[in-house]
Design goal:
Mean pLDDT: 91
Structural class: mainly beta
Number of strands: 4
Radius of gyration: 12 Å
Number of helices: 0
Strand content: 25-35%
Low-confidence stretches: 1-5
Distance between the termini: 37 Å
Helix content: under 10%
């Protein structure tokens, strides 16, 4: 059995939540923070970590 390789997170990219869901629900995959800023525009929910800046989006 092969060990899963840790994927490096590009902080300049907005990841699609459907393709990259949280490893731990409600926590940033990069820094494990639970402190986010969020917004909704044009039917897209955007969540950005306030600690490291990683972002995910979800179509509503």
């Amino acid at each position: 059995m092969e060990a899963k390789e840790q994927q490096e997170i590009d902080l300049d990219k907005v990841y699609d939540y459907a393709e990259f869901p949280d490893k731990v629900s409600g926590r940033c995959d990069n820094c494990n923070s639970a402190y986010f800023k969020s917004s909704v525009k044009g039917g897209v929910f955007l969540r950005e970590c306030r600690e490291c800046g990683s972002a995910t989006s979800k179509q509503l």
